[in-house]
Amino acid sequence: MPAPEKIAIIGSGPAGWTAALYAARANLEPVLFEGLPKQTGGYVLPGGQLMLTTEVENYPGYAKGVQGPEMMSDFREQALRFDTRVEPRDVVACDFHKRPLVLTTVNSGGEKQTVDTHAAIIATGATANWLGLENEQRLAISGGGVSACAVCDGALPVFRDQVLVAVGGGDSAMEEASYLTKFASKVYVVHRRNEFRASKIMRQRVLDNPKCEVIWDSVVTEVVGDKQITGVKLKNLKTNEERDLACRGLFVAIGHTPATAFLNGSGVDLDDKGYLMLSAPPRMHTSVAGVFAAGDAADPIYRQAVTAAGMGCQAAMDAERWLAAEGIE
């Protein structure tokens, strides 16, 4: 039986690769489980949400901006430079009740394999919830004006002084719509009910904004456009009336789902939405000794590449100190 790994990193977004970089430079010989491509309500690729992002302008160090996949390739290359071992496998289950910790992995052919490890960093991210429309996904992937992050994309030149549509009714949707008004000529907020679920202060911010117009009791049924979005089709859920609405951008703000379902029964604590809970913030420790969290899987608030990378750094440093205290070096 092979010796347990010192540390295993689950996930290959900014948090995972940064954790790998720090762990490798600390001579912890990390193994990183990169994951497999899949489609579960939205496309999920090794590399995380940035693999579906065209232009990234808000990550430090890329003065002229960078394509999301290119940035993840740079992260990967830097981690590999320090001999991070990469496994193209999914981690489908974990048993953190045992020592060493046990990870169950699967390859593209469905073959399962267990891996023992003294420490683990979970950096599996979170996926945006989409409307489930065919053209929505296509234009989101191609950079055709559909996005699930206004803070990431709203300031791009293609959206400036344009009519934009934001979908949702919670605090996140109100924040996204308000942010978009800094750049757009007008923002339509489409919500399926006749009142927002958002907190009073957040919804009032939208209702009082002269650039915002709310379309109540309605859903987007189709995203129109070939290379670039040109509009959406709307349906009123009370009257069944359908209408066309011209726009140059669609921002879907109906929440995120953390990629943590594989942790059910593992022994690590999750909150009611599935996000990993930190036991002693700002440290990245979870409820299980030797298990650390990083990135969007533990962050329901910021969900930015730069914050995820920072958490990856913290998790690796916390893991290094924990392993040293356990006499594992």
Structural notes for this entry:
It is a single chain. The chain has helices at residues 14-25, 68-81, 134-142, 150-153, 171-180, 200-207, 305-325, and strands at 5-10, 31-33, 38-39, 43-44, 55-56, 66-67, 85-87, 90-95, 101-106, 112-122, 126-128, 146-147, 163-167, 186-190, 212-215, 218-225, 229-236, 242-246, 249-252, 256-258, 291-293. It has 2 domains: 5-127 and 256-325, FAD/NAD(P)-binding domain, CATH 3.50.50.60; 130-252, FAD/NAD(P)-binding domain (3-Layer(bba) Sandwich). Helix 1 packs parallel to helix 2 (68-81). The mean pLDDT is 94. By secondary structure, the protein is α/β, with parallel strands linked by helices. The relative contact order is 0.18. A hairpin with a 3-residue loop joins strand 3 and strand 4 (43-44). The strands form 6 sheets. Strands 1, 2, 7, 8, 9, 10 and 21 form a 7-stranded mixed beta sheet that branches. The protein has a 5-stranded parallel beta sheet with strand order 12-19-13-14-15. It starts with a strand and ends with a helix. It has 7 helices and 21 strands.
